[in-house]
Amino acid sequence: MDQTHIPPVLVTGATGRVGRVVVDQLLDAGIPVRALTHRAEAAATLPAKVEVFTGDLTAPESLDPALNGAGAVFLVWTAPPQTAAAVVERLAAHLRRVVFLSSPHQTPHPFFQQPNPMATLHADIERLIAATGLESTIIRPGMLSSNSLAWWAPAIRSREVVRWPYGAAETAPIDDRDVAAVAARTLHQDGHVGGDYVLTGPESLTQAAQVGIIGDALGHRIPFEEMTPDEFRSLSEGTAPKSVIDMLLNAWSAAVGQPAYITTAVADILGTPPRTFHQWAADHATAFTEGP
To answer: Which ranges carry the NAD(P)-binding domain (predicted)?
Structure first.
């Protein structure tokens, strides 16, 4: 593909779980890519073809060099909310297209209806984007399969019991690679302006069943034990803000006995079904045995 007339896409959060895969997907599609990183050394993991810019969402003017001449941006908000309006204003001044990684905070399912400071921030940014007249697409992944690495891998690596609250809570975990593929497709393919996509995996699984599936991938049974919410709170102290811990516990509590919310958005956009949690676990088995 002749890249001389294709304006580059700027990927924020380019070294993150989803952003890093978006970079590869765009390059594979022949789209020139710019990456925004906080620190130049973080860019060492990016392909040589990527044009790297250092900048920070908390300093909106630092984004100008990366935005000059860009055609679209993949926006992953990883900063406090104070500069959101100024950043969105700058995006609108430089380019016409934004794909925003949001959350399913409007989804009519109890799992997504808990008070959540991140959802409030996402809703505010969506309003700011809508007010500028930017061509936008909103993508809303539900629970990411990769969360299980942070949650359960330490115990699994140590061959300990996985202890967790609300083992019967059902979610439909989505593979980060599917989220990234949808983001990349909506960044460079026509027909997605105004799109608002809730992305989920293909099946409703309890948390205990997800641990069992990881055991299947590793070839041994992983014991699972229910933990009380209070125990989870005290063990999580210092690892995440209290509001996030409360939101997770409320969401899991609300999801017990409720099949997870499932959409066909991934298949509709990509033309292939989303990866199952079995596939994800098989592809990431070594992460549960060899350390992060």
So the answer is: 13-189
